[in-house]
């Protein structure tokens, strides 16, 4: 039987769909316990035979309804909620009650439910996490657990972990320091690893590392669920992270993927460079964002014309996302043209809070900004930089809403026939401009993509469908590719492979509508193709441990994917 990585004991892969399974917990789950176990509970979908065999008679109403009917009923309920946060809470309750039905809903209604379980609604959920906290999800590792992290990991009931998403809650989306309440992010991310990438739920582990918070309103909140102290920094912080990373490798082995999520800039870069040589690590804010944006740029070239090397890039924002995207663009440009990386970087300019990053500022810059300090006169504002650099592509990763003003967009349209404008900051309120503004101010000529979803825009009787440069296009397939090949290290070439695989999924029909990304409804096919390309790269680089190499990697990826359909119990 094909199986993603280690042996699939729960029959969660697609390849196991027709097998009869036994609903094991510690013993065979039956009766009341079975109904309270989200992994095996099917609600009213238990058959007459299953109700007899598992002591469920009388514990359920007599009606038997199919999973399809359950899905229809729940979608009707969800649509009746007017407040997105209420939908989020209903989805989380479903996940705690009936795991397969939760994923069935999410997979079958991905475009509708993605904004509910992830950005933008998850941001509000994190802000209110203490208030809506019902039952713990994931592992909480705080400074209190120092010296005992390995024991804490052993408390988690699942032993066969393949993907960990970990945050310290310091920079949640564009919302800042939410401390322990950042747990909503790893939980949401891993739900997408399963729904979109097919990684088994039992193989996913969300973790929040609580080193305190500098958010005064949380520290003063009597109901705050985390440590009530200022954030630990320096050696104390580094030692805790070192113990965590060592314990993860000791407990789960070399092949477990650790995704760093929503760490503050200074820690994000340091953790990635420190552990990328010893662990299988990935930072979605730096590398995932870069990969999806590069894919959007590559597919946009069909609309704006020219090659990647013909473009001039200007970024507003020089943090994790901005510098990560810039570096991957420079790498791809270098790969295509054989020009050294130091030269291709000169086609890319960054603006931070103090203006254009130029050579005379080099001494005062943080280390990750230094490669982007080029020879130029100082420009203190974005509009000055746009007029001076005359970019063909304008990318916003600033976390500051309304910064691509009418003047900026009009300037872009004045020297570009089709300017590419990417307003990538999340949530929607932090987007540098809206889709409507980009199309209106450029007289319908802009090619637009954003980080959060925008509705289609009608301009001069033409309907424009804005692209969403959502990391969820990349990380689930990337994770599946790493897991199914048994990769032991991450490599930049895998990110480039993922970008190219995504860009290949955009068809002429999509281009005709102004789309630069394929529709999300095809996400599982997209993920299987990305996983195959990533796995192929892992084999080519000698980083894969699952041998022999499967002949057809796309087919193998599809067989490894989790299927949410109910199983028949013995």
Brief overview:
This protein has 570 residues and is of the alpha/beta class. The chain has 24 helices and 14 strands. Helix 14 packs across helix 15, helix 20 crosses helix 23 and helix 21 runs antiparallel to helix 23.
SS content category? alpha/beta
Shape: globular
Give helix % range.
40-55%
Q: Overall pLDDT, averaged?
A: 93
* Rg calc: 24 Å
Q: Distance between the terminal alpha carbons, to the nearest Å? A: 20 Å
Largest sheet: 7 strands, mixed
Tell me the number of helical segments per DSSP (H or I, 4 or more residues long): 24
Beta percentage is 5-15%
Which regions are unreliable across 5 or more consecutive residues at pLDDT < 50? 1-5
Instruction: State the strand order across the main sheet.
Output: 8-7-6-9-10-11-14
Strand elements, count? 14
GO molecular function: malate dehydrogenase (decarboxylating) (NADP+) activity; metal ion binding; NAD binding
GO cellular component, one term: chloroplast
Function: The chloroplastic ME isoform decarboxylates malate shuttled from neighboring mesophyll cells. The CO(2) released is then refixed by ribulose-bisphosphate carboxylase. This pathway eliminates the photorespiratory loss of CO(2) that occurs in most plants.
Binding site for (S)-malate: 171, 426, 470
Describe the overall structure.
- InterPro entries: Aminoacid_DH-like_N_sf, Malic_enzyme_CS, Malic_N_dom, Malic_N_dom_sf, Malic_NAD-bd, Malic_OxRdtase, NAD(P)-bd_dom_sf.
- Residues 286-539 form the Malic enzyme NAD-binding domain.
- A divalent metal cation binds at residues 261-262, 285.
- Residues 95-276 form the Malic enzyme N-terminal domain.
- Pfam families: malic, Malic_M.
- This protein is an alpha/beta fold.
- The chain has 24 helices and 14 strands.
- The chain has helices at 31-35, 48-53, 67-80, 84-97, 99-108, 110-117, 121-127, 129-132, 149-155, 184-197, 216-219, 234-252, 265-275, 284-304, 320-337, 341-344, 382-389, 406-414, 435-441, 475-485, 492-503, 508-512, 523-540, 553-560; strands at residues 139-142, 163-167, 204-210, 257-260, 280-283, 313-316, 348-352, 355-356, 393-396, 420-423, 447-450, 457-459, 462-464, 467-468.
- The chain has a 7-stranded mixed beta sheet, with helices on both faces.
- A hairpin with a 2-residue loop joins β7 (348-352) and β8.
- α14 crosses α15, α20 (475-485) packs across α23 and α21 runs antiparallel to α23.
